[in-house]
Write a structure and sequence with these properties.
281 residues, 2 strands
Length: 281
């Protein structure tokens, strides 16, 4: 494992986009977590997200993980560029001639993905605790750790997404094709989800329609991108201004989405290994 980590380190250290996007990602991630301290002029008024409760326990776990997860494409760029250059620069072929097996290649990429995901998760955890203890209106242990599971969901969401990009990178080998495929996949899932929702709620009104949307099982929620998205729901309904309007927030832990993500992880990892073994490089 140490040998594989050293190999990845020396490969990536000499790749300029890798270093640039890594620094950019972590700098923007840390800055974004402090977004609640900034006043926004919106619709003729001023909105401060800290005053809207985004740093209050336990909601802060939902807000911070959802906000920084929007940046995962930055880290995804690093993963895609890192893997694609292996094929464009013929490093993969040279490494296999030098004795690196397909299994060791996949393991080295998973180590890189795992390290990035762990470091990102630890930063979000540490800064969320710091911001929560500094600005939350409550410090009760039950509230502080009430929704800490969002940190675990954040880790699974990032790791699954990067495994998906690794699979696409090994399948398509060129970064531009990877991002085109990701875009097409995103559009395709969106269309399938819209069709399923329309089929289920067509002709229904008001409460009956909301009941179906909130509690019914949707097959499309098990698709890769949709299951990742369901792990951390949009927290904007938890802002103080929305609560004052009488809007009730309900959250059901997305167990099906968590299982789906773990299954997709296994599919992407074994799929990547299968492609490496079967393709003539």
């Amino acid at each position: 494992m140490i040998k594989l980590l050293k190999l990845e380190y020396y490969k990536n250290l000499n790749y300029k986009p890798f270093k640039v996007f890594t620094i950019l990602y972590f700098a923007i991630l840390i800055a974004l977590l402090f977004i609640g301290l900034v006043d926004f002029d919106l619709f003729g008024g001023t909105i401060n997200l800290k005053e809207q409760g985004i740093y209050n326990f336990p909601e802060i776990w939902n807000f911070t993980t959802w906000i920084v997860a929007l940046l995962k494409i930055f880290l995804g760029l690093i993963i895609v560029f890192s893997i694609s250059q292996e094929f464009s620069n013929r490093m993969f072929k040279q490494n296999t001639i030098d004795g690196l097996s397909r299994k060791e290649f996949i393991t080295s990429k998973l180590l890189t993905i795992g390290i990035f995901t762990i470091v990102s998760t630890l930063i979000v955890f540490a800064l969320t605790m710091f911001l929560g203890y500094k600005y939350s209106n409550t410090k009760e242990s039950a509230k502080v750790f009430g929704e800490i599971f969002f940190i675990g969901n954040y880790f699974v969401k990032l790791f699954t997404f990067f495994c998906f990009l690794m699979f696409l990178s090994i399948l398509l080998r060129k970064s531009v094709f990877v991002f085109l495929a990701l875009f097409v996949f995103w559009i395709g899932e969106g269309i399938l989800t819209a069709v399923e929702v329309y089929t289920k709620v067509s002709g229904m009104q008001g409460p009956q329609r909301n009941e179906i949307l909130q509690n019914d099982f949707f097959v499309t929620h098990l698709l890769p991108l949709e299951s990742m998205s369901s792990l951390i729901p949009n927290p904007m309904m938890r802002l103080n201004m929305v609560k004052m309007m009488g809007v009730k927030y309900e959250f059901h832990y997305p167990t099906e989405s968590l299982i789906a993500c773990l299954v997709w992880c296994a599919v992407f990892i074994f799929g990547s290994y299968w492609i490496l073994r079967k393709r003539d490089w």
